[in-house]
Write a structure and sequence with these properties.
72% of the residues lie in helices and 0% in strands. By secondary structure, the protein is mostly helical. The protein has 2 domains: 1-51, Arc Repressor Mutant, subunit A, CATH 1.10.10; 56-167 and 193-204. The longest helix has 26 residues, at 55-80.
């Protein structure tokens, strides 16, 4: 780690993560290299290795940031609303994920590679934020659905999070995939992130 203030370290990490996020808008995970990321920052590729040892670590940090932003949204949801019906909660939760396309894309497309090719301490840091996401959803259930049993709340959390991994590939379909499904006579029904999440949350709440 280079010498300097924690503020400088955090600023440089943010610049690297921002560069990665910007490249990810037009390039695939496999296409992006450490050289590409370095070119998009104000410092050299060698300097990047002071903060992240692999491309996957940078992407994992990006995913961690996405979870942190979602966690804050869930906290705001509880702060703004003392009570929500099942339909209202499904609406709010669906809209919170509709805003986090990178979260859904990263978790469904490259999650295993990011975790497998990151240092253990980076993975622990990420898992702490992911674990907080589990808690934030559970906190919402505790606040808005007081009559739900603890078992039902646990079942909701551990059904909803695996469900999230399938949202992006189902809702973002290329023209090539559409043509292939039509040729294979697959009756694909398009649903948006909001629509598929809203329906699933209502189903899990038996609403």
């Amino acid at each position: 780690m280079p010498k300097g203030s924690q503020q400088l370290t955090n600023a440089r990490k943010k610049e690297i993560i921002d560069a990665c996020a910007s490249l990810y808008k037009t390039m695939s995970f496999k296409e992006i290299t450490m050289k590409d990321i370095a070119t998009a920052t104000s410092f050299t590729r060698t300097s990047i290795y002071n903060y992240f040892q692999t491309k996957e670590e940078i992407f994992l940090a990006l995913l961690q940031r996405e979870y942190e932003l979602w966690n804050e949204k869930l906290r705001q949801l509880r702060a703004k609303h003392e009570n929500l019906s099942a339909t209202e909660f499904a609406d709010k939760l669906a809209r919170s994920l509709e805003e986090r396309e990178n979260l859904l894309k990263l978790m469904s497309m490259n999650h295993y590679d990011m975790e497998e090719n990151s240092r253990f301490e980076r993975l622990v840091e990420f898992k702490s934020v992911y674990g907080q996401s589990l808690k934030e959803v559970k906190n919402c259930l505790d606040q808005f659905f007081t009559k739900m049993s603890e078992q039902d709340k646990q079942d909701f959390v551990f059904s909803f999070f695996p469900f999230m991994f399938g949202i992006y590939p189902y809702t973002v379909v290329s023209e090539k995939q559409r043509r292939a499904m039509a040729e294979a006579d697959v009756n694909y029904v398009y649903m948006s992130v909001y629509e598929i999440t809203f329906a699933e949350v209502k189903r899990l709440l038996n609403a």
